[in-house]
Amino acid sequence: MAKTKIIRLPDAERLFIGVYPCALAYSDRGRERSGDYVRIATLPYHSLELEWEKGEPHKTVPASVITRIEADAKQMTAHRGQPFRIANNLTITLGHDDTTTY
Asked: Is 47 domain-assigned?
């Protein structure tokens, strides 16, 4: 397993939210592994159910970052059934378990 590099950042700057084709990815900018930020959780667009990575985040991530992730996931869930743009030319419907795009 690759070694994790620690980067000293204020808590307010640690959260990175990546918009990927199938999910939002919540990562810790304060830790890198193999050149990437360490992923904390994902929020798949089809289920809108927050999925925490094993061993994360409670061991290494500040409570304020966990709270921000939970708040963002709750906000996304409130938009269930609405379109969400994941790229300039691709929009999906939040909470739908199909591959229909617009």
From this structure: yes
How far is Cα 62 from Cα 39, in angstroms, rounded to an integer?
Answer: 14
Could you tell me which residues come within 8 angstroms of residue 63 by beta carbon, excluding any fewer than 6 positions away? none
Domain count, the chain: 1
- Return all residues near 4 (Cβ < 8 A) that are at least 6 apart: 31, 32, 33, 38
* Domain presence at residue 58: yes
In the structure encoding, which two tokens stand for residue 52, read together? 């925490």
Domain limits for position 55: 4-93
Give the chain's mean pLDDT. Answer: 88
Assigned token pair, 92: 């999906």
Give the count of alpha carbons within 13 A of 58, CB side only: 3
Say whether pLDDT at 99 is over 60. Answer: no
Rounded to two decimals, the pTM is 0.85
Is position 20 within any domain?
yes
Residue 98 included in any domain: no
* CB 102 within 8 Å of CB 83: yes
